Amino acid sequence: MLFIFFSCAAQNNNNYFPVPDSGISKDVKNEYVELGNIIETKNGAATQMPVWLRSFLGSGIGAVEKLDAYVNKYVFIGINEGENFTVLSKWIEYYTVTHDFPTLVAVRIGERMYLTASLYPDDEYGAFYETMLLNAYNADYSSAVKEDNYWIKIKSKNSEEPSENYVFYVLITIEKNVMQTIIRNMITKSNAAVTLTASQNVSVNRLRNTFFEGF
């Protein structure tokens, strides 16, 4: 079981929620890597990295979604890092939309709910929070596309224990209108499955109306 960690400065507290095991991939909206720390890439040099990865490493997923190739799409990037090139190569080879992509979606949905909550999500949304995450893990995202993958090798940032790691990236996209329909249906399904207090219903309705702002 992998635990994803989020913190909220406004609350000065930490929050954890469990993510079902699906390799050791993660989805982040920003992943900054200094070009000077890249010592090798799939194509040989840092200058040969694809545009989507250069945009992601420099400015995050928002910059990737602004590229002409990904207009009207949500972009997700799974990441796996380690020293064993063979193991990571197998991970990228067998990475699928059916079995692995739902974890990326669920993590982002969970983050979206957490960052917009004024209380802990379990208090803010009640049983809707956990139900929504479980539905996200089990949803059908068959229209998502595994578009590309790439790897780089970077020097460790820890000068006391220098090391070199491979970082593998997989790029998945899904049409915005398709994803929005999936999530709207998911919100409706999750809401119908639980009993909430009046204040929790207000929070869920607010989430329904603002969910895609910054998603």
Summarize this structure briefly:
The chain is α+β, with helices and mostly antiparallel strands. It has helices spanning 51-59, 61-65, 85-94, 101-115, 121-124, 127-138, 176-192, 198-210; strands spanning 2-8, 13-19, 26-27, 38-41, 73-82, 145-155, 164-175.
Topology:
Elements: E1 2-8, E2 13-19, E3 26-27, E4 38-41, H1 51-59, H2 61-65, E5 73-82, H3 85-94, H4 101-115, H5 121-124, H6 127-138, E6 145-155, E7 164-175, H7 176-192, H8 198-210
Antiparallel strand pairs: 1-2, 3-5, 4-6, 5-7, 6-7
Helix pairs in contact: 4-6, 6-7
- Please give the alpha-carbon distance between the first and last residues: 25 Å
Mean pLDDT: 84
Q: What's the SSE pattern?
A: EEEEHHEHHHHEEHH
Radius of gyration: 18 Å
Number of contiguous helices: 8
Strand content: 15-25%
Arrangement of strands in the largest sheet: 3-5-7-6-4
Number of domains: 1
Please outline the major beta sheet.
5 strands, antiparallel
Shape: elongated
